[in-house]
Every structure is written in structure tokens, then in C-alpha cells.
Write a structure and sequence with these properties.
5 strands, disordered N terminus, alpha+beta, 22% strand, five-stranded mixed β-sheet, Aminopeptidase, 4 helices, 160 residues
């Protein structure tokens, strides 16, 4: 893929994007999730969300697809409306963001996040949140470069 951020189009997902989106989900486990989160478990959880979106999108949920000038899909972002635990205020949340294999390092992730921020501003939200695994250093660096800051840490203890 030769796409750069300048020749990308970000558009709403269509029914014919379903196979692309599902096929891209295993990329989410490539960074090496914690050992108690097997890649198949991650993929299955994200696939449930994607299938639900394409079957009957939850109210306010949006999926955007990045496409090169030649029509090649380069990634997607799934956005949701959620309520802040502390204030009860509704805000935007990046539920899933994936850059397609072969499109890394070409501005696709930044373009998708820019489109997510535009969606959130357009909805009148004051915040856009996302969740990332602590060990996903590359994604964390991208988010921090884009101005996102860590707010909470979630700890997990496996119980017998």
C-alpha cells in the first residue's frame, strides 16, 4: 500500500466493509497482549462488537474506514458514546482502531484519530477517550504524540 495521510479518504463504513474489518482484527493482538489475554480471546471480543455494529449499530455508534485514493482500505475506527464514571457526562470513546497490514507508518492511524476527534467535536463532546493495553508501547506513543494522556490504570488479578 502506498497510501499516505494526504491521499486518504475517511468515510462511514458500509456493509461491504464487514469482511475487511473482521479480517483486520487480529492485528490488535500483534503487539503481544498480557499472557492471560490470548489473541483468540481478544479477536473474539472485538468480533462481537463488529458483528453487532454491522447487524444493528448501537445508538450513536459510528465506524469510519480509511481508504486510499485507489480505493484500497487502510484501516478503521469504531466510535461509541459513553458516560463518564465520575461526572455522568456523555463523551466519545474510541472502541477499536486498526491500521491494516502494510499500511503502518503512513499516517493512517493519525488520520483515523483525527476523524475520531472531528466526530466527537461534531457531536458536541468535550472529551474523547480510548483504552490501550499497558504493554502496547507503539500505540501508547502514537496516542501521546496526538495529545492523549493516561488517566487511570486498570489492574487485573486472576482468581482461581
Amino acid at each position: 500500500m502506498d497510501a499516505t495521510e494526504t491521499d486518504l479518504a475517511i468515510r462511514p463504513a458500509r456493509a461491504d466493509d464487514r469482511a475487511f474489518v473482521l479480517a483486520a482484527l487480529p492485528r490488535l493482538a500483534e503487539f503481544g497482549p498480557p499472557p492471560w489475554r490470548p489473541p483468540a480471546e481478544l479477536a473474539a471480543g472485538e468480533a462481537r462488537t463488529v458483528e453487532a455494529f454491522f447487524t444493528a449499530a448501537p445508538p450513536g455508534a459510528v465506524m469510519l474506514v480509511a481508504e486510499s485514493g485507489s480505493g484500497e482500505r487502510a484501516g478503521f475506527v469504531y466510535l461509541e458514546r459513553v458516560r463518564d464514571y465520575f461526572t455522568g457526562e456523555e463523551h466519545g470513546h474510541v472502541g477499536i482502531v486498526v491500521v491494516a497490514a502494510g499500511a503502518d507508518g503512513r499516517g493512517v492511524g493519525s488520520a483515523l484519530m483525527g476523524a475520531a476527534e472531528a466526530w466527537a467535536r461534531g457531536a458536541g463532546f468535550r472529551r474523547l477517550t480510548l483504552t490501550v493495553f499497558a504493554g502496547n508501547r507503539r500505540a501508547r506513543e502514537v496516542y501521546e504524540h496526538l495529545g492523549y494522556r493516561a488517566e487511570t490504570l486498570r489492574y487485573v488479578k486472576l482468581l482461581d
